[in-house]
Design a protein that fits this description.
By secondary structure, this protein is an alpha/beta fold. It is built from nine helices and 17 strands.
Length: about 325
Amino acid sequence: MPLTGSMLAHRSNSVLPKLRPLHLQEFTVRPDPDDERLSVTVPGIDQDGQPVATAVVTERPLTLFLNSREIVTMMTIGDRPELLGVGYLLNQNMLKPDDEITGVDYAEDIATVVVRTRRQTDFEDKLSKKTQTSGCAQGTVFGDLMEEFDKVALNPHARVRTSWLYQLTKKINTAPSLYLKAGAIHGCVLAEEDRPLIYMEDVGRHNAVDKIAGYMFLNGIVPDDKIFYTTGRLTSEMVIKTVKMRIPVLVSRSGFTGWGVELARKAGLTLIGRARGRRFVALSGAERIVFDTDPAHVGEEDRKHARKGSHADALE
């Protein structure tokens, strides 16, 4: 469906094109579990038939347009729609790193975000060559994305110290989040050394990734020395998107898929999974890891923050 300017007139917020690079502080962007738009309290009964009230995350559609053409409708918690729209287009190769974004408009009343570019795109070809991935909420990658994947050269000089990993996982798991409040949500974090910089959550992990990609693009953040952390599985989609973003290290508290590992090795991506407490397993790019901490001196993960459920799930 074509989109006309009048549909968004007087109802949109315009986001500026690329900004100058930022000096990011720890948790420059982080979840806001107190945002009333992102969760609701729902009454029910427990296993004993007793009344309970529990927090559940919201889920709402967001339709994305590139210029005047509809691209996709995504299910999302609804925060940061402009970043999600830009990041989705980048990670699907519909936007190029040198594309000039002339505006990003979001109309809340019609749940629509429009990304406007100076250059016209070839998205029709991409839409005809899509492959559904194992990402929750039906992640998709488009035809020529794998062709670009083969051309990416990740920074071979990047390093990740084990002391950074232990600090990162502790900081991320104990930070206030919608996950700890309500569960049923994924989180992704852009980090530098032992500092979490940008922390995004969404019902689909690919949405959380795309929000970070959009933030990086609009703020001119250099990826070569960064670490990407996700709470979800290390699937082919996660590997493809991390490589597409040119981030050399991908870490998760969860496990791996075979194709994810194969692609990581092909791209030279450092892939670290099952990162919990003092433990982790690296299946690709181990040459970047610097073992500077004795695991015996690292505490086990606090069961309260084991991320197998939320505080709401744990209420008695």
